[in-house]
Design brief:
2 domains, about 180 residues, Glutaredoxin, alpha/beta, about 40% helix, single chain
């Protein structure tokens, strides 16, 4: 082995070890960032929840910070899963409020993920003010996002007797309804 090849391999190994040390130091000092990364990895695993299966366990927070467990929800309700940045979901919520629910089911719960900043919380509060007949909730520790494995907003499930019976992804307002 030539001297330059040896030093090149040694330099590559040293760079690899140095970057691993920097990463470990960064993650050690940034536990919150590391936990968020783990949640993202966990949330991206597996296929989205199909219809016809049991309602998975999840929790959501009310605007005043109370944690609501999925087992405490009524036997028949509509669950809307969305990200706070979604601009389509408010139209769905507006239609739910105007129609007294969704497809004859008055109990509608909208669980929002991605609520991290004061602006996000303000937006969530405003949604609750605008759509009083819809239960506006915040995803508690990404448990709904992880349990349902949804990636498109909004994703709507109709839940009856603890099972998912209908699933809609996205929302297009039907002009005949309005």
């Amino acid at each position: 082995m030539s001297r330059s090849a040896f030093f090149s391999k040694a330099a590559s190994r040293a760079l690899y070890i140095l970057s691993a040390i920097v990463l470990l130091l960064f993650l050690g000092k940034n536990q919150t960032a590391y936990e968020a990364h783990l949640l993202d990895v966990r949330n991206s695993a597996g296929a989205p929840l199909p219809i016809g299966v049991a309602l998975p366990e999840f929790s959501a927070e009310t605007l005043d910070g109370q944690v609501l467990e999925s087992g405490s929800l009524p036997a028949r309700f509509v669950l809307i899963l969305s990200d706070i940045s979604c601009t389509v979901t408010p139209a769905l919520l507006e239609d739910c409020q105007a129609n007294g629910g969704y497809q004859g089911i008055p109990e509608v719960y909208a669980v929002y993920s991605g609520v991290h900043t004061d602006e996000d919380r303000r937006q969530l509060t405003e949604l609750a003010r605008l759509f009083e007949s819809v239960h506006i909730l915040r995803d508690h520790e990404n448990s709904a996002k992880w349990s349902f494995k949804y990636s498109a907003s909004p994703t709507l499930y109709r839940i009856e007797n603890g099972k998912t019976t209908v699933k809609h992804v996205g929302y297009i307002r039907d002009s005949a309804e309005r």
